[in-house]
Amino acid sequence: MAPVIKLNSGYDMPQVGFGLWKVDNAVCADVVYKAIKAGYRLFDGACDYGNEVECGKGVARAIQEGLVKREELFIVSKLWNTFHDGDRVEPIVRKQLADWGLDYFDLYLIHFPVALEYVDPSVRYPPGWHYDGKSEIRPSKATIQETWTAMESLVDKGLSKSIGISNFQGQLIYDMLRYARIRPATLQIEHHPYLVQEELIKLAKREGIAVTAYSSFGPASFLEFNMKHATAMTPLIEDEKIKAIAAKYNRPPSEILLRWATQRGLAIIPKTTREEIMKSNLRSVEFDLSQEDIDAISAFDRGIRFNQPSNYFETDQLWIFG
Q1: Domain ranges of the chain
Q2: How far, in Å, CA of 216 to CA of 197, rounded?
Q3: Which residues of the chain have pLDDT under 70?
Q4: 39 neighbors 8 (Cβ within 8 angstroms)
Q5: CA–CA distances in Å: residue 67 to residues 14, 41, 53, 186
Q6: I need a labelling partner for 61 at 20 to 30 A (CA). Which of 31, 111, 177, 219 fits?
Q7: Which Gene3D superfamilies match (predicted)?
Q8: Which CATH number fits domain 4-321: 3.20.20.100, 3.40.50.10610, 2.60.120.510, 3.30.70.260?
Q9: What is the pLDDT of residues 295-304, one digit of tens each?
């Protein structure tokens, strides 16, 4: 039986899921279908990924062929920055559900704590970071409280079973908990040995918020964007210390990095288009690392964040990311 994490909303979330960021539209439906066939039940999508229609086609094919039932899947999506105004949340969620071909999401997240001016989906979808699609940044006046109140109504209306947050830091979480009628069920963060975020994880655990790690392999996901630090850091799966630990367990380095996260109680959402790697990532929960090896991997921590707004645009509001 695949491991699950019990959410504060009462639902079970698979601990090992499949991430959909950068899955090319041309192959996305087939990748999702094959991932379901390989055993994945959680799929982590987002408006900003631009592939939700194709993801839905992969899900529909798997259901039609009897590989899985809808209620056996855990579908995650995210609210993009340009839809933070309270009256924009429900309409865009309904569009995203239609794109997926679903009646509800299992989990819906605020993608970033960044509110940008509304861009109509008929003008450009997904909208991206820039109002004009090129360089202009237009912030919205929507507060996190306004957005979260609208998120809570999604649960009331059955559009999402659980709601959560992504890329939030401690101060914002504490502020949210002062007014939240429905507490966030999960916090999704960049997390890998170069960015352990131990205090943030402790905070979430203390508040009953499950943590999902993305970019588990560190700079690998960001090399193509030439993001700050990414090209300067040794890819973790190529690091000699990681490779030595992998050899000790007779496992590939990728499984070592994933197990380091799950053994510490986090959920993971790695992605791949290769079926053998899909299966390998699922197998990463089938062994245990020693505490000594967990500590050795945690010692890689450099506090280096690859996914941050300064990599997308320049603004004086970067404090919100901590």
Answers
A1: 4-321
A2: 13
A3: 1, 220-232, 309-322
A4: no
A5: 17, 11, 20, 28
A6: 111
A7: NADP-dependent oxidoreductase domain
A8: 3.20.20.100
A9: 999 999 999 8
